[in-house]
Write a structure and sequence with these properties.
Helices cover 44% and strands 20% of the residues. Helix 2 runs parallel beside helix 8, helix 4 crosses helix 6 and helix 8 packs across helix 10.
Length: 492
Amino acid sequence: MGATKKYQKRIWDFELMESHVVTAYSEEELEAQVKQQREHWEAEKQRRKADNLTACEEKRIEDLRRFLLRSYEKDKPAIQEVKEGKKLYPPFAFGKEEPVPETYLKMYKVPRYWSLPERLFPGLTERRRERHELAMEHYGRDFEAFVVEKEQAWEAYVKQKEAFERGEGEAIVNVVNEVLSALEAPENFIQEYDTTLDIQNQTAKILLRVPDMQELKWYQGYVYVADQKRIVPVPFRPEAHKELYEELLCQVVLLVAHRIFLYVMSPHVNVLQVRGYVRSIDPATGRPVDTYVIMLDITRDVLATINLELVQPRACVRRLDGIFGENTGQVMSKAMILNRASIALTPTGMSGLSPEKPLINLATIDWREFEHLVGELFRKIFRGHGVTISVTQASRDGGVDIVVKDPDPLRGGKFVVQVKRYTNMVPIETVRALYGTMLKEKATKGFLVATSRFSDNSRDFVRDLPITLIDGPALLAYFKQYGYENVVLDRL
């Protein structure tokens, strides 16, 4: 017969609510098996912890995907009021809490009244009364100051509302900013905002600073790695992370448009231009640069046709010809963004905003800004019908600057655009290079856009080819045709 196991020990894990009897032939073996069982329990607890963290992360991601819907549901009472003909206005909110006596009694450590001790020691009563008097004096001063400050805030609120109803520019901008400050965007998604107003064109222009995609840490879940004895996060695939980021961007801009149109019932705000950008450091210069990540223009009437309860945010923004994802990421300085998206207040600040738009000289603006502006023009030219247009990353290598994709089976295909800012005649070599690029990219059509003129040889070369040449005068005419009245081509 085999040897009998002489040693045994019952061990417990109260967190798992489990017990186990360990048997062994020797004390050494017993301790080894006890250690092994405890390690097994510890691994099980870590796996359960990883499962809990995964469940929390899944809920977090689900909340991110549904935050536009939740915000819209909160707004339903206000939406109903608007349907009934009521004009909404942000409610009065005073950020300070009203002082209460209990706070000051605790501050001065005023003891409670105890009859028996105070009868035995009369000095306790006097001390309690002194502290109570000091506490109430302090409370009275703070309460009076609170009332005065609240009354002043109310008067300022009433004056601003009256100015808003009169259509004064500064008051309208302040109300828009109040709406933005009350926006409960997740993940600290709106870090800064800036509002300007073009009263002549009934347009509010919103700049939102949002986090860079890499700043936001989202995970599929968590797993316990036994050989490392630690819980590690499982990151999203880059494509899925980018998709979630874009979805959140689209939800934010749609919510911004919804809230502003809901609460800013002014005839001076019928169009919104929302621009989201991220801030980073240019490694070449060490200076801050701002980068567009989403752009959306929308009117009050168009937004009214959208059911935000059922909409898919990314599909909605695409349908509205918004730009995000592969069409964004072009580095632009904040000055360039403001030049394109802002109108400055007049010196008085109360008589509306200056209708004068800053001139954009195609001959002198930054070369990358020039490409981006031409990209905007092509978006207007090819607006609708599912056409997508993207400005490629900066290269200056003679490659493709803009790509147009038209899904139409008859007239569509892939179009490539090269943008050249020349002062002299465009040489035929540049046109030949575009044709070579078309063959390489398997494009069905090419466009060569230049600020100068094309030689006769160049025009003869493209006569039987699917290439369109757009010279400086023609480019300027296109800009004027599509509403860019402030674009000029003046050579210095």
